[in-house]
């Protein structure tokens, strides 16, 4: 926890030109939590409400330079990792994370596919994420589909979130939160940790299709709360409540799936 008036949270992720997910969603969620958001852009996408029209991965030197520029001068109290795109970037980010001061929490959102079904990571990167990044994560936040992919071929068709989470714990993170928004019924996220009972965080499913950026938003909210001093279960509970409100406030933007409303709580407070 910093002595500054605000905590510093770094997002390492891809840019979403439509503003609904990626770096843009991360920074909005961080602002809503009252922390100072910083960014390392790993990829640039041409993206809007109907899909992803193009992806351009940044060279390793550009990613490393952004990281060192921010961390060496400003410092960081928590890190959120999103879209990395390639195995090379996964390995590079893992190496960069090992240079952080001890105790800086890392939230890993293993982004593989966009809300519209467009792939955002190559096949080799899955292996690099499993072996290099999961061991460095304080908490990993895969959705059900991502958890199955990361758990391996034996997990195909698996619906037990706790079992998937415990399989992924074997890769080395301190905690795994398997999100259930893609399952039938009301969404339940299941948090598993070493030597702890499973914890379930439920919400009523909102009848709103404008949910672009929910995964990025949740992971960023967890990172912000960890940076402010919360423990993992408390941070997850608060982030779940925040993203549930953001989903309820999601709005139409463009012709397809609109974004969640990162400022829903502020709008309610201001009555606007």
UniProtKB/TrEMBL annotation:
Q: Which reaction does it catalyse?
A: 4-amino-5-hydroxymethyl-2-methylpyrimidine + ATP = 4-amino-2-methyl-5-(phosphooxymethyl)pyrimidine + ADP + H(+); 4-amino-2-methyl-5-(phosphooxymethyl)pyrimidine + ATP = 4-amino-2-methyl-5-(diphosphooxymethyl)pyrimidine + ADP
Coiled coil start-end? none
Q: What are its E.C. numbers?
A: 2.7.1.49, 2.7.4.7
Q: Name one GO cellular component term.
A: cytosol
Q: What Pfam families would the database entry show? A: Phos_pyr_kin
Pathway(s) the chain acts in: Cofactor biosynthesis; thiamine diphosphate biosynthesis; 4-amino-2-methyl-5-diphosphomethylpyrimidine from 5-amino-1-(5-phospho-D-ribosyl)imidazole: step 3/3
Q: Name one GO biological process term.
A: thiamine diphosphate biosynthetic process
- Tell me which UniProt keywords the record has, alphabetically: ATP-binding, Kinase, Nucleotide-binding, Thiamine biosynthesis, Transferase
NCBIfam families according to UniProt: HMP-P_kinase
Q: What is this protein called?
A: Hydroxymethylpyrimidine/phosphomethylpyrimidine kinase
